[in-house]
Amino acid sequence: MSISKQNRAIRVAVITDSTASIPEHVRIAAGVNVVNLHVLAGAQSFQENVDITPTECAQLIAQKKPLTTSQPTRADFERALQQAWDAGFEEAVLVLISSALSGTVSTARTVAEASDRTVQVVDSQTSGMALGFAAVAAGRAAAGGLSADEVAAAAALAAAGSGAYFLVDSLDHLRRGGRLGAAAAALGTLLGLKPILTIDDSGKIVVSSKVRSRAAALGHLAQHARDAVEAGASGIAVHYFGEPDRARALADELRREVQVPVYLSSASAVLGSHVGPGLVAVTFA
Q: For 51-69, how does the pLDDT look when each residue is reduced to its tens digit (9 = 90+)?
């Protein structure tokens, strides 16, 4: 990650993590920078967005390679903050993946407490572009010249109003990674049910509803997005991992129906390693 010199009116650096899966043009426009998580394949460690792409990660899963993931290291965060100070920023806000899903927030807080500058850490209690929208809101607040406290509050407000609903081909990846309980995962094998998952208020993955077919599940995802726009959401993102066609069709459908931006982006390699190929998700804020 590199941080370019910024307008001196912008005092606060905004940094998120790579699970936010923000489309690159959106990230750049919002002035948001990224610390990457890691995908581990045996003794090999890959920094996502640097050493491994989501497509390459999906290929490893298809080859039955056992994968695990790792949060950014303390050195990763220290490096990101030093780059921010070198670029002329005076404070920083870190907007990060749910602490119920990753130790990223814990590591970031340790680094923030040791810093001699103001560094705020926001536990978004979500991930994907639900997290990404919160980071973008923080970036826009920082561009408006607000303080770290105010930027962090903008991120927290956006995260609290966000939502994420998703469908996967198999719940086994989430079960093996400890992100979903065995009882909930068993639903995927009972009576052909297609559970729709969400991230609850505590930042954990839970079953939101159960439907009988993939077509019905995709219809439910679309309805969640429509309802979110009706309730005031200002943006929607549709994620995929592996095969993009279903997600692209869903994004196209929503673009015809709603008057807010609808983004299409792959879930990050780390997220993909936990959900497996076949993911379709809608997130909004």
A: 999 999 999 998 988 899 9
